[in-house]
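fold-stage: in
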Amino acid sequence: MHTNGAGFRTRARLAPHTRARLTAHTTTQHCYGETLMAIKVSIPTILRNLTDGAKSVEGEGATLAELITDLDKRYPGLAERLVENGKLRRFINVYLNDEDVRFVGGIEATLSDGDTVTVLPAVAGGMR
């Protein structure tokens, strides 16, 4: 076991070229050498009061559900505005890399390093 600069124990040292590539991105170091990439989440104006006005935030998770849980820890109240009874709220649209998540697994959609998630309120109405 080795210890990295932040004091976490890691199982193996990374090659210098790998270390440089990882530090070029926003990363979070977890114990035992597991490194998760932050996922960028675009927040609509209507929900920015929960993110202190931030247009985009970063979070972690292997699935959309885990990402929302992670974001709710940092921005309390966000999950209840996005999820109801374990499913995405009907009038909230969530896109994973420009694909509607309802067609790629819903709340259990798998996320990968460098993914971008966009949250948009549904727009309804029109002329009669």
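fold-stage: in (second)
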Amino acid sequence: MLLYLQPDSDKPLYQQIRDQIVTGLATGQLFVGESLPPIRQLAVDFGIHYHTVHKAYDQLRQEGLIRLNRRTGAVIWCDPPPPGFAAQWREQVRVLLAEAWVKGMSPDDILATCADIVRSFQPVGGLRSGAEAGSKQAAGNAAHGGRGGSRPPGRVRLDDEGGES
């Protein structure tokens, strides 16, 4: 999986990192048990401040989507949702759908868009563990690499597969 950062976006960089990791988990590009790149390494690779990556990882930790510790680093995890999660999620979805409605999207287009997005996700129960994903480890290993090569700025690979994700 590749992470792409858009420095000119209105969305903060830490939020871009967080959102892409969540999407990667939902679409099956990242798996429970996989390691993420160390905070310092990801910051160097993107040329951003350490605290920006730390903030993204800490938000993911608070949401129960990664575990952080000194020995294993950041590892994809999936805690059960906390009490009240469904109500909070529903309100967030309500606002996003209201924005689409106000901007003139038809109900059919809104529903079709939602259905397309949901179809792209992997079932949560079907997420493979790191062991089932084979020896695949998220970047932080030799394949992750530094800032060299032909990789455009703002893009970092999170896995050790040869092809683009």
